[in-house]
Amino acid sequence: MKFLDLGLDEPLLRGELDAAYARVMDSGWVILGPEVEAFESEFAAYCGAQHCAGVGNGLDAMVLALRAAGVGAGDEVIVPSHTFAATWVAVASVGATIRPVEVDPSTYTLDPAAVAAAIGPRTRVILPVSLYGHPADMGRIMALADRHGLFVLEDAAQGHGSEFQARRAGSIAHATAFSFYPTKNLGAIGDAGAVVCNDAALDAKVRMLRNYGARTKYEHEVVGYNSRLDELQAAFLRVQLKRLDSSTEARRALARTYSASLAGAPVVTPSEASWARHVYHLYVVRSPRRDDLRSHLQSRQVETLIHYPTPCHLQPAFATLGYGPGSFPIAEQLAQDVLSLPLRPALGADAIDHVVEAVSRFV
Ligand SMILES: *Cc1c(COP(=O)(O)O)cnc(C)c1O
Questions:
Q1: Ligand 1 centre from 156 Cα, in Å?
Q2: The CATH number of the domain where 353 resides is what?
Q3: Which of 132, 184, 185, 316 could form a cystine bridge with 282, CB 3.0-4.6 A?
Q4: Residue ranges, the chain, pLDDT below 70
Q5: Is 180 contained in some domain?
Q6: 328 with 83: CB under 8 angstroms?
Q7: pTM of the entire structure?
């Protein structure tokens, strides 16, 4: 069983994508046009937010949001110890200081108590990540930010449609960055991303930054970027957005089946906090013998992946920060024992049964 399958050959979906492609080809408009505008308003509405600016990818969404918020050299940004490297790369890209703190060992998201302990005079931003599809404890994080006058940027690259107390990602933080990389819960057929917020001035800055720092053509107010969303990707995303709720429900149902069936198996299953709506971008279990479990599953034709095998603080790219083994024990433990089982909306109950059966036979 393959871990990934974008499902683009599904006939109904394929027909709608082909129609979207034809619409763009007929319009002759290919960059920042009517499809992008329509997608931006549809996705903002989906998130329950006022503004959405389409950009080139998820990393750029974070970089542009940080720049728009005026974050740069001398500012500290609090990030989770356990995340995909992009979260840390975004902070380094704007010249700010990465301040990692540990994650909660049950939700794998930023631990508010660890955040509170890390806030200092140079702290400007808290950057929670809805890792695997589970939101961070946004209530406590926003309360900390209010008390200390900090900006909150959520990395929701894995959290489209995730909710904290029935509020959707995009409507809670001061700005939320999304990726529409093809494998994400809402995916383009190439690279794409967006910044969602409720602040008109911030939205206008992101729009300026994505287009060479110009609000008006050839009038460059700041040194910006080229990070635009193109019409084809926006048209494809509009097709996929219509399916996001049903595909999220399918993910949640499969995750419930997994968790119920794996109750007696020798793995730790993911938890969902009482205040959370988990969107299961990934279904991640833990095992002290992860590598053996992985080869056992591979021998039964079950492909799995590891998200992520090396913590950011032990990556060569971040060696200059001066952390070493032992600096973030929770992140290091997770890197050793997490394993992502196949979960995508099109998987049938029989496929899940096959995986469960294979896991249960691991001794
Ligand atoms: C995918 C991802 C990103 C980056 O998105 P790109 O579109 O690939 O740049 C950032 N953060 C997390 C947590 C991700 O999973």
A1: 8
A2: 3.90.1150.10
A3: 132
A4: none
A5: yes
A6: no
A7: 0.98
